[in-house]
Design goal:
The structure holds 2 protein chains of 2 kinds. Chain A is α/β, with parallel strands linked by helices. Chain A has 3 helices and 7 strands. Chain A has a domain of about 100 residues: NADH:ubiquinone oxidoreductase Nqo5 subunit (Beta Polymerase, domain 2, 2-Layer Sandwich). Chain A starts with 16 loop residues before the first helix and ends in a 29-residue tail after the last strand. Among the domains of chain B are: about 50 residues, no CATH class; about 230 residues, Cytochrome-c3 Hydrogenase, chain B (Orthogonal Bundle). Chain B is globular and about 80 Å long. The two termini of chain B are about 40 Å apart. The chains are: A alpha/beta, B mainly alpha. The interface between A and B is large, with 41 and 45 residues.
Chain lengths: ~160, ~400
Amino acid sequence: MPLAPPITEIESLKSHPALAGLVAWNATVVQAAKFDREELTVWIVKESIREVCAILRDSADCPFNYLADLTCVDWYPSEPRFEVVYHLLSIAKKERVRLKVRLDGSSAAVESVTSVWPSANHYEREVFDLFGVRFTGHPNLKRIMMPDDWEGYPLRKDYPVEGYR
Amino acid sequence: MTQFPTAVAEAGRDMPSGDRTMILNMGPQHPSTHGVLRLVLEIDGETIVGMRPEIGYLHTGIEKTCEAKFYQQVVPLTDRIDYLCPMTNNLTYCLAVEKLLGLEIPARAQWMRVLMNELTRINSHLVWLGTHAMDLGAMTVFLYCFREREDILRFFEMVSGQRMMTSYFRIGGLALDPPLGFFEKVKKFADRFPGNVDEYENLLTGNPIFKMRTQGVGRLSAEDAIALGACGPTLRGSGVDIDLRRDAPYSGYEHFKFSVPVRSEGDVFARYLCRVAELRESIGIVQQALSGMPEGPIKADSPKVVLPDREKMKTQMEALIYHFKIITEGFTVPAGEVYQAVESPRGEMGYYIVSDGTAKPYRVHMRGPSFANLQALAKMCEGQLIADVVAVIGSIDVVLGDIDR
């Protein structure tokens, strides 16, 4: 089963309900899209992520009402350094979509989606704890895994695997 | 009584919010929190008005460790995340890497994976049922459950040499073919097990004390369950019909017939009924896997990824070279990313793997079902008594290894 090459033109991916809904609402929020290994990834403009999530959640044909996962990838030393990754699931239509937001290392902050899904609370705290990405509007942005007085963000690529000695 | 929203405890203060309330610490060494879970409760008399879970006591940084290992070296780490269902973790990780590689798995390996996964589900549910019942004062059920669990652990030992940290599934297939006599033993167990479930149900389902402790306790509506990210039996107990084995089949689950138990009550008892019904469904899948087990290879035909047989290594130069290269340099995985979700005993277990084209994963993220379910705990406990917190924790079946990773 050889891998099919990824599809990156937004035009040819419009049949996917998530992308169709977003392009119909406001095409400028979509930076790029990729269909690879049967999974759709959509890059969203950083400022609109909360709105986009709300639009997808309340979509009439295919409501992406479940936040399956929220995490982050550090692309140090290239910029934009962080990618916050949202995995959404439509429980009714069994569709999945992956949203991504690119963030600069110098101002790693993005609007929180806790107002859209309360379940984002712990996930965003975990990303803040381990990557140092801030979520504006989060009700309780504190460390969740590491002790409160911990220095540094362990999952960043410039943080040594053995920790600082 | 003044109603305080859960947000009071969320604000992170360890001070009571009014004159009538006090803060009580439950855990991390409390026997009924199933591990090192710490709950900060705000109580008015015996009634919970707010709750905040404090986690991280078991954080080992597995995600960071994975980034420093070859792909095949990550498999034994995944066992240690959700230690009650090691094979499900193995499966999720292997499926994700196989998706990245575009690797086709032979039918026998897929069916063995299904068989072992359903045994794992039964194993995990038995631990849950035993400890949940014991938390509520029913000691006998615990002994019965662990009797059957012992049989399943023996099966694990037969195929992998390990009772708990099995690492039996490998990227590209299985570690070994099951030994002689394995299927007969599992068949014997599968024929006997429905009678054992009747035994547990006789002790609990109609038991007035158990019903009083569980019915109407820890209610969670379907909307709240979705908004708070609950998954698995917790979500199905609230009336949401979702099961990834049926909705997004993986590893050949599309060949199996089973039904998905859903209850609409949303209380502790509904979640109990869902899981007990799942025990019966799982043993049905085990029977189907046994009767239809295909013959054939247990590893994919991909010499650059899958270790060669010992016999070939001793007779073929090529095989020896591949073995040396996989062990010393690993194998490269084409750049890309996948999110593979699997229905674990506790709900949606997802592995998000990013590859940058090298022999080590660039990023591995585990989406733990217990981590998701934990967020619904505060909502379920609001307005309940302290004694009910124990019942509710048991009903979402937390595994702290899965939460803290």
